[in-house]
Structures are given as C-alpha cells and as structure tokens.
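Handout, section B. The chain below has 471 residues.
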Amino acid sequence: MSAIADTQTDAPIARAVAAARARFDQGATRPLRWRLAQLDALSRLLRDHTGRIEQALWDDLHKSPTETRLTETGILQTEIAYTRRRLRGWMRGRRALLPYTLQPASARLLPEPLGVVLVIAPWNYPVQLLLAPLIGAIAAGNAVVLKPSELAPAVSATLADLIPRYLDPGAVKVVEGGVDETTELLAQRFDHIFYTGNGAVGRIVLRAAAEHLTPVTLELGGKSPAWFDDDAHLDQVARRIAWGKYLNAGQTCVAPDYVMTTPDRVAPLAAAIGRAVTEMHGADPSRSPDYGRVVNARQYGRLTAALEKADVLVGGQVDAETLYIAPTVVRASADDEALMTDEIFGPILPIVAMPSVDAAIAHVNAHDKPLALYVFTASARTRRAFVTRTSSGGVAIDAPLIQISAPQLPFGGVGASGMGAYHGRYSFDTFSHVKPVVRRGHALDTLALARPPFTGLKKRFASFLAGVRSG
C-alpha cells in the first residue's frame, strides 16, 4: 500500500499529483525567494539529520558514514551551493539578436518552469539520485513528486518522513511503494519525468510518458569499459580502478564494468588490483567497515551465478547470509555470456585480453554506447583514438568516476545508456522551457513586404531572401 508524505497520508496518488499541480498553478513555485528557500531547507535537512541518513544507508547497503558523505550528502551539498550562487543569473532572461529582415524588433529568451515533475530514483545511491534531480527541478521553479526506491526501504522511509518537514509540502510530494505505485504514478500526467535505473524499466517509463507526450530524461547504465596499457603507473592505476569498481560494492552505474588490455598485461594488472584491495580493505574485506554489501538476495544470486564458471584471479569469496561478495577480479573473454552480456553492477571485474587498441575500440563500437568510458594510458595517440572513435556519455582519462562529481559538467548517457543530462546549469535547463518573447514595434512597418498582394518590390524582396535571381 502506498504512503504519501502529506498531511493526508491516505490520499490516493492521483490526488497528490493534483495537489502539486494546484500549488504550481497558484504560482507559488515561481519566485526566486521560494526557490532559494527550498534549496536552503534541503541543505538544512541534510545537515540536521546526517546521522539518521547515514544509518539508513548502512541498513540498506552497508554503506559506511564516510562513503555516504563522499558519494551522497557531500555531492548534494556541493550541488546546492553551486546552484544557489548562480540561480538568479540563470533565471534572468537574456537578449537574442534578430535578423535585419525583422527589424526594428527585439527578443528575449525567458526560462520558465515546466510544471509538475516526477523523479523516480534507484536503490544504489538512493539519497543522491533522488535529491540531485530535485535540486534542479525546484531551482527551475517546478513542483515535484518524488518516488524513492522500495529496494532501499530504510532510506525511502527516512526521506518520506523528513522531506515534508523541511520542504513546501504542497509543492514537493513523496510517494513510497513498489511496482503498483510506480505504475499508478506513470498513469498520471506530468510535465517531465526523470528516471534513473535500468534500460528495461526505462522503456516502460518512456512508453507511459508517450501517452501524455511527456518529455523524459533517462539516466541508465550499461557496460562501461576501460582500457589499460600504462605499465609505468601500474600500481597507481590499479588503486584507482579498484576504488572506482568496488565503491558501493560495485553497485555504481559509472563503475568500470570491465577492463580491456593486452594479453601480457592481464596477470600483472589483476595482481596489482588485488594489492590495492588489500590496501583499502585489508586481507579480509568482509571485516572492513568501509566495504558495502549487495543490496538483496536477488542481486546476490544473479552475481554469484555469474561467478560459478569464472576464472577467478582475485577474491571470489561469498557469504549468502550477509550478502557479501568479495572484491573480485576474473579473466574473461569478449564473448563470455555470463559476464560480458549485461551490466555486472556488482563487485566482479572482468579483465578481457585484446590484441590491440583497434580491437578494443571495435569491441566498444559493436555494442551499446556506454554511460562512461575510461582510458588508462601514457599514449596521447591512444587517448585520442578512444575519444574520437567511440561514443559514450562521458570519458575520463587516468581516473574513474570523476566526471560525475563536478556540477560544471553535464552528466547523462547516449543511446542505450540514456537521454538528457543534468547537474548544475544542465539540471536547470532540463527542467525549464526557454520561451522566446519577441516584440515588434509599429514604426517602420517593414512587415508590409510580407503581406499580399505580392507585386513589384515584394516579389524582388522574396526572391532576394530565397537567393533566387529575379528577372
């Protein structure tokens, strides 16, 4: 049964959406003062309830408090501060130049809110990926309906309790629940839907949005590849790959999904990653307070099934009772069905031998466009080859994940890895419509040249515009 964070907790989903729309239609969300107040309130929520949020993430994902601050609440506070400082300028209409054929006239481009936005969040970063789109949506002046993931129940309950205490309860709604509640939400009319998750559900969201011609942002995932050939920095690269891969127990949409390298480098790289894991989490990562767990038994079963016939080079230990899978490195072939078909989304890293950079690029281009691509090389030619000859949501060179942490950069996929982008100004633009406002004065009525009857000067003028020689 759904629970709606509102004064009327037994109200149906349709009523919650209607209430948000009524609040928007009243004009309450449009003023700069309201937008700044909501951003400030969200920042206070994160500060006031740091411990409670960290406990919820520990309960759901065994995520350490420090990791939570680095990857969830810290990123949000940075995004809020960045947005708050620039919001007045983003809201200000800007002048647009018009062609001389329309003169004398003037034009402005005025960003306006879309209306009521639906944000559907995943379970892997259940705080950040629910609230980061919210920052952009309220900064743009929208009312918002939030749907936290039911697969992170402690976080969902915590945010459903806290958000209406801090944010405008008429304009920001939280709907808890599972598939039934999400299905009912998607049947409502929204002005934008923002979904983060997998491609299968993304297609369902897109089909539902088509019924109302609702624009959609899809932040999906896929198999984000990496290439390695930087022998001089083997241990440094291994530390960075291990950090990026095993953060949140590998349950990160932009984690390196697999690493390609030449056959002679497979064993040295695997050994170096093993040493890096020991540096981070000790000889037995199950005892580390900083290493997470798989989210639930279903995901655990999927991942351990993929390991059954794998050539394990590092790790491989599992414990069903605690949903523990050790940071693991396996040797895999490019056509390994268990490991190289779908996104792994867990702490298993295949290393795939490739004869050359060209072969690796061909492999990437033969599959869906990834959300991220990583290149670890000392060769400028190799870097240039991957950047110019492949397509992906983003590229990071010599370090994973860093491309998503700066509000100055857009984050989003391409093709099967998603559509649309957000963070910083890109979030504001995603949740805004830029409306052109044109004014034409009454003096010098040159528009007469466009009105019938078309004779003489008017014909010559039209021919001039079309680049046709009159005669």
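Note. The longest strand covers residues 105-113. Compare this with the example in section A.
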